[in-house]
Design goal:
37% helix; 164 residues; alpha/beta; Rossmann fold
Length: 164
Amino acid sequence: MGDLLTALAAAQPDKTAIIDDRTGVTGVDDVRRCTFAEFEDRANQLAHVLDGLGVGPGAKVVWCGQNSTGILELTSASRKIGSTAVPLNYRLSDEEAAYVIDHCDATTVYIDAEFAGLIDRIRSEIPKVTNVLVFDGDAPDGMTPVDPLIATASTDVLERTDVD
């Protein structure tokens, strides 16, 4: 069976898939809407970014942020490349967050800019992490703003032979 998002994007490309109305991110009067075709493209682009960073089948990608388009893109991209998306509650203490990240063997963190300070504070306690990708805002020093990378990545479905 193929990817469900890919099938939905082919069957109903112009149908709304996501509505993101978070104030302060999308703007007070602005609501971010995304069609299935746009969602598919962004998930494919993020899959290419992750693949380019060496994230592949079985790898753990910790994600942290409020419900948003970015989080949905990450969970879909992870599924497409065979990695495991591990949720991290942004309400955890620094010690708890470091424990979750380190003990799940994550090598990549995908975090909303609003919560990037958490990773900044615990960076020395998560030695397995090689990539910290920040979305929806500015990235602190030592972290990578992922939105520009996504914007320039291919929208093609990533063809992998090592994903079930």
